[in-house]
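User: Fold this one for me? It's Glycosyltransferase family 4 protein.
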Amino acid sequence: MKSKKLLVIGLTWPEPTATAAGVRMMQLIEIFKKYEFETLFVSTASRTEHSQDLEAMGIATNHIKLNDASFDAFIKELRPDIVLFDRFLTEEQFGWRVFECCPEALRILDSEDLHSLRHSRENCFKKGIPFTEAHWLQDDRTKRELASMLRSDLTLVISSYEMELLQQTARIDASLLWHLPFMYDAISQQNDWPEFEARRDFLFIGGGLHTPNVDAIKHLEQDIWPKILGRISNAKCYIYGAYLPDAVTKLHNPQKGFYVRGRARSVSEVMKMARVCLAPLRFGAGIKGKLVDALLNGTPSVTTGIGAEGMHGALDWNGFITETQDDFIDKAIELYTDKTVWQKAQDNGIQIINTLYQKTSLETSLMDRITEVSKSLATHREQNIMGRILEYHTVQSTKYLSKWIEEKHKNK
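Assistant: Here's what I get for Glycosyltransferase family 4 protein.
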């Protein structure tokens, strides 16, 4: 029997210990490996010392060039059954080449989170104006991201809120989308988590290359932490995250109980020892890795509506979702000092993971959908007329821009 081939085109090399995007990519790779796909991961980016060792997992890797015809020869020889694009930027860069060289390959886009939504919200926040869905639709990045989804055979969407936004506001047909949150094994009520009394202090965790995290840390240090410390004088707040910029590291101030630690050796280890996770996010998109980690380690959290967006369905949050700074401070203190409230929040977290993030059922449903689309790919594409129109025009425009850049590089 011919083995099935998966080509993953990564925007970056996955770093699951540093980013939620890295966790997401590794989960996807592991699904396809479980279903016996011969997998090749490629990227134009450079690896770091913290990049996942894919070869050790039996995953072949390669470096590819941007705006270079060598990719065409490479993919024609490989002839993958499925091509998975890591975020819309890789689909823009390589989608037309895949279409031309391997038109029979199923093209899947993993959106990670809606980058256009995060970008639009950040712009509104910086300008001091309310975010609206109309503002999002008008953003040029939104048009690019939606076009990428329409050109793809299937787009994986991590957040239930973003599924709703794409279908109801952007009018993307449901047949082109698949809701796939993070995936985890069920949590047993009999776990090894430290109890309330064995935990102490507050924690924020998030990578420094992600603008929403940098803003949240500054907001926490300037506006929130001094007021919490004023009411719980012996408390400490620890900041963890890879690639934290100088603007964050200089906030380290033990005299004020604010400790900037940088990259955590083990996210689970530091999360389990904290009593409360703080996530005062003021813009962003997708499912927040820090809050999933809090759920997985029995650490109640206080966050904002944007922080918890698309994460818990109709279930109660594992702590509090707040919309004002004063409420955030009050709820953080309540959660930190009231054992009964804290334990109920922890139980809510178990329910969220076991109900909405069930690994086995999510894996099975995804592969069933991929099989279904693959078997009727021609019909699936015929029904997506807007995708075919965009595909035609994108090939014409992107193709010749890329070839122009390629020729320019040759003549240097």
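One thing worth pointing out: DSSP finds 17 helices and 13 strands in the chain.
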